[in-house]
Amino acid sequence: MSYEGEELYLCANGHLHQRNCYNELEGNCPVCEVPIVWRMGVDQTNHAGIWPVFEVYAEAKVETCLCCNHTKVIKPETYKIPMNQGHAREDKSGDVDLRASVPSSIARFKVYPHYGTESEKVFDTIDEAVQYLDDEEDRQIKEREQYLR
Predict the structure, then answer these.
(1) Could you tell me if 54 and 84 are in contact, meaning their C-beta atoms sit under 8 angstroms apart?
(2) Rounded to whole angstroms, how far apart are CA atoms 122 and 91?
(3) What is the spatial distance between Cα 58 and Cα 15, in angstroms, rounded to a whole number?
(4) Domain map (residue ranges) of the chain
(5) Are 60 and 31 in contact (CB under 8 A)?
(6) How far apart are CA 64 and CA 42, in angstroms?
(7) Strand partners for 69
(8) From CA 62, how far away is CA 103, in angstroms rounded?
(9) How far is Cα 54 from Cα 122, in angstroms, rounded to an integer?
(10) Euclidean distance between CA atoms 63 and 70, whole angstroms
(11) What's the DSSP call for residue 119?
């Protein structure tokens, strides 16, 4: 059995990065070069995953060309760091300052039962999101059984 998923990372300044689970983000933030202070894995092995809904700390700043309407991100959006899910990075050497410069928040979760679909619901806890996925799977099994009768 294989594992499929994504890794989510937040740096101390709140920049969000997403990588395939087999292509981890090494080192510091590619945007601002400060340490990564938070990460979370999203398991996509049997469904599209349970994703955190990040609280925006600062909106992105964009610039639009007056001639061609091309937009360019001048400053990317930043997010608050969820404290109820994911893992804070540890530096046992004491050499790296891992304090975030953005505030923390409580994450909520959105479910993607199948690729290309998402639940309209946002859940307060990951346990509620998992229960929703389990209930959805049970419902689909019952529908298939009804259809086959």
Answers:
(1) no
(2) 33
(3) 10
(4) 5-148
(5) no
(6) 34
(7) none
(8) 23
(9) 12
(10) 8
(11) -
State the Cα–Cα distance between residues 48 and 88, nearest whole angstrom. Answer: 24
- Residue 95: both structure tokens together: 């050499």
Burial class (CB in 10 A: 0-12, 13-18, 19+), 14: buried
Asked whether 23 and 6 are in contact (CB, 8 A), the reply is no
Residue pair 104/98 in contact (Cβ under 8 Å)? The answer is no
Residues 6 or more apart in contact with residue 26 via CB below 8 angstroms? none
pLDDT in tens, the chain (149 residues): 688 888 999 998 999 999 998 888 888 999 999 988 888 888 888 777 788 888 999 999 999 999 999 999 999 999 998 887 777 666 555 555 556 677 778 778 888 766 666 667 788 888 888 888 888 888 888 888 888 87
DSSP string, 43-86: E-SSSSEEEEEPPEEE--EEEE-TTT--EEEEE--EEPEESSSS
Three-state DSSP class for residue 40: strand
> In this structure, what token pair is assigned to residue 104?
């923390």
